[in-house]
Write a structure and sequence with these properties.
364 residues, mainly alpha, 15 helices, 74% helix, 0% strand
Length: 364
């Protein structure tokens, strides 16, 4: 049908042109949906990849036209177009992952979540990551609907990345760990930006990133731990944090008792996830502490063998101790902060505090 639309004469009025553009977009949506289904059930690798390639072609064609219509459609017609677009966002991300276009994945995360310039802006390009239509939806629909929609997109993206990192049946071609960690970390921040409550999915991502990144990516794991502490402290409050009081007044849905109860329930940090992050953080502090002890011993042994003066040796040992003590404190104190948020009457916090004091940091 798309080919028939292309046969229409070019000297048509604007209304007809817009109608045909919409019809072409619907054709692209149907083709992408069909291709993704065929790709998922195809056993022949070459054919599967061809289907995924076609998916990306149709998604791009749909995406190139959507900003022109979102700016003028209203009501059900606009809602329908937005839902189709969100569906294609996930299809495009899945296709890129299946085609092992790893460098594209991070760009797609940004592309589908950055603000859309005005359609009248000549600098707005569909291929420019700054030209994503997604945030236009966020400014014109209700907060609850938009938040739910965006979180589902992020959840789908995270699941696709996690599936791509697994090396099934010993086959090569899994998503590189560094890229997967970067994408997941970015999805964590984007999810927190629009929904500050510690959802089950979000806390699960934090745990997975911690598992994949520790100890090879210390800066990343430290950032993840900071997020966990922030979420845990927030969820520990009796009343969940609200985004803006005025926003709640503007959204009738959030005034209902059912929505408020669901919001409070979702604001809880899952106990198992919280316990994992707490124990992992403290255990890592102990690992750093033990590594520091070994470093001091090795340095002392080298000093004796090399015949350095005692004063120089003391200075060298003190520098090593200070460096490791700082890292130990950083991880242990954040573990204690997490333990303080556990619903166990303070048992975990007291136990970790005793072990922390027993380390006698600063003693050489």
């Amino acid at each position: 049908m798309r080919q028939f639309i292309d046969l229409y004469p070019t000297d048509m009025d604007e209304s007809t042109r817009r109608d045909l553009s919409l019809r072409r977009m619907f054709c692209d949506f149907l083709c992408a949906s069909l291709q993704i289904t065929q790709a998922r059930f195809e056993d022949e690798i070459d054919i599967k990849l061809q289907h995924y390639g076609s998916v990306r072609t149709h998604v791009e064609a749909f995406r190139n036209q959507i900003s022109n219509h979102l700016s003028r459609l209203e009501g059900g017609a606009r809602d329908d177009l937005e839902k189709k677009y969100v569906t294609l966002v996930v299809f495009d991300f899945e296709a890129a992952a299946q085609l092992k276009r790893w460098d594209d994945l991070e760009e797609l995360v940004d592309f589908y979540t950055n603000p859309l310039p005005s359609p009248a802006d000549p600098a707005a390009s569909p291929k420019d990551p700054a030209a994503s239509p997604m945030m236009l939806t966020m400014t014109t629909t209700t907060m609850t609907t938009t938040t739910t929609m965006m979180i589902r997109v992020y959840e789908a993206m995270a699941d696709i990345v996690l599936c791509s990192t697994s090396n099934r049946n010993g086959k090569s071609g899994a998503c590189p760990t560094a890229i997967a960690l970067t994408i997941l970390h970015k999805l964590i921040f984007k999810t927190r930006a629009i929904s500050p409550t510690p959802t089950a999915k979000l806390t699960r991502w934090l745990r997975i990133v911690m598992q994949l990144a520790l100890p090879s990516y210390p800066d990343l794991t430290s950032s993840v731990l900071d997020n966990a502490v922030s979420l845990a402290r927030q969820s520990h409050l009796d009343v969940p944090q609200q985004r803006q009081p005025s926003s709640y007044n503007d959204i009738p849905q959030l005034q209902s008792e059912k929505v408020q109860e669901d919001y409070a329930e979702n604001a809880k940090y899952p106990p198992d996830e919280l316990e994992y992050m707490t124990t992992t953080a403290f255990n890592h502090a102990i690992d750093i502490y033990n590594a520091g002890i070994d470093a001091v011993r090795n340095d002392a042994a080298g000093t004796n063998a090399g015949g350095r003066k005692a004063n120089d040796a003391d200075i060298a040992v003190a520098a090593v101790v200070d460096d490791h003590d700082t890292m130990v404190r950083s991880w242990a104190e954040r573990a204690l902060a997490l333990a303080a948020c556990m619903d166990d009457g303070g048992a975990m916090q007291r136990e970790l505090q005793e072990r922390y004091v027993a380390l006698r940091l600063g003693d050489v």
